[in-house]
Structures are given as structure tokens and as C-alpha cells.
């Protein structure tokens, strides 16, 4: 029995690693958003970006499209922030090479690149046209781009969801979080084009070690037209805020992040438009 269990664990780990490392024909863009602040959106985006950067050989970009004093640079332990998404939109050209682009990005300590949304200034805005021009231009340089987007229902977040190859909706693992997320999924299902639900994963993030939510019932309530529901368990290191260190994460958190990365990339690669 022990041998069979170990074999299953090895097989699952191999499946997840292969999914995260799978080749992409063109850059895949994954948008992470939420229904309200404090749900864990930036934390999930940072975990996804770190996972892809660790496993993949092609360049991976983490882009912050939440300029209102977003915390993605802090969560990724960015050494410095000079250029923002809005700044890059003013100078990017089709003739630029990857080496030209990386001069405007932040190279992260443990692989991967970051394009922040602000420089810590109150009132900074990211215009929709700037976001579009940057995303279109950067797609050919990076195999995977993870976007930490504004919360719904902003115009930028709605546009980003429609343009991405896969979407992650982060919600608190509470009854209120599940109810609000169901309303968002119903809205997405009502849109004639593009069909967004098949490329969507819902992450229920636990903010307490003692969660009272019925996970099975919540998952059944949110599984519409191919939507997958995954749990991000409570983790003391994540709850403390600050830079995320993989070695300080709990084993269950690392496994959940890897499973989420595999599920989302599978949907981004196999999305039919």
C-alpha cells in the first residue's frame, strides 16, 4: 500500500512538471484578478510567476497591471523599481530585441523578469491603451506572462480577461467570496465572445488555518462550463506578507502552486478561439 501511494505521488509530480514545462507556440498570457482587494490576488500571481520561472527554460515575465500602490514587487523581492508598464509603452518599438527590452525590466533574484505597475506613487494610472500596446509587443519575447491585474469590474481588468489565453479568479475561501465569484462567472458566461469560462480557474484562498467553508459544496457551486476550482491552503509565511521565499512555504502550499500552474498553462495552451 505504501509503495502504491508513493508511485502515485511520483506520477502526479511528473505530470505537473511536464505540464508546467510544456512548449508554447507563441507567448501565453495569464491574467490574475479578483472581486475585491485583500483576496490574495497578488500572492497567487507571485506564486504562479515563481513556479513558471523555476520550471521553464524560456523567459517568463510577471507584469503588474494594478498600479495603485501594488505589492507585486515586494512579494517578488524586486531589488529596485525604475521603469513601469506605462513608461515602457511610450518607448517600445517592434524592432526591439529581447536584450533591449530587458534593460527596462527588473531581473528577479531567482529567475524571471518583472515589469511593475507603479513606482510607489499615489495616484499612478495605467491607461488601457498603454496596457494593450505593451502586452501585444511583449508577447513575442516571453513564453509565459503572468499579469497581476486590477480588481473587477474595472475596464482594464475586463479587457485583460478577454484578451488573455487563461484567467485566474482569486476569491477568499468564505461564503461571501464564493457567492460573489459565482456572480462574476455568470457575467462571464453571458458574454458572446470570447468564451472565457473554459479558460478560467477559480482559486479559493484560505486566510485562516481554521476554515469553516464546505470546499466540496463551494466547488460544485462554481464549476460552470469547464471552470476548475482549486484551493490555496493557509500558509503562515504567505500570511505574514513581504517577499515570498519558496523554502519557507509549507509543502501543501508548494504543491497547490504547482498544480495551479499546470492547470492554468494547460488551459492557456489548449484554448480554442
Topology record:
Elements: H1 2-21, E1 28-34, H2 41-55, E2 60-65, H3 72-75, H4 85-91, H5 98-102, E3 106-107, E4 113-115, H6 128-138, E5 144-149, H7 155-163, E6 166-172, H8 175-190, E7 200-205, H9 215-222, E8 228-232, H10 236-239, H11 251-270
Parallel strand pairs: 1-5, 1-6, 2-4, 2-5, 6-7, 7-8
Antiparallel strand pairs: 3-4
Helix pairs in contact: 1-11, 2-11, 4-6
Describe the structure.
This protein is an alpha/beta fold and 273 residues long. It is built from 11 helices and 8 strands. The protein has an 8-stranded mixed β-sheet with strand order 3-4-2-5-1-6-7-8, sandwiched between helices. A hairpin with a 5-residue loop joins strand 3 (106-107) and strand 4. Helix 1 packs across helix 11, helix 2 (41-55) packs across helix 11 and helix 4 crosses helix 6. The protein is globular, with a radius of gyration of 18 Å. The mean pLDDT is 90.
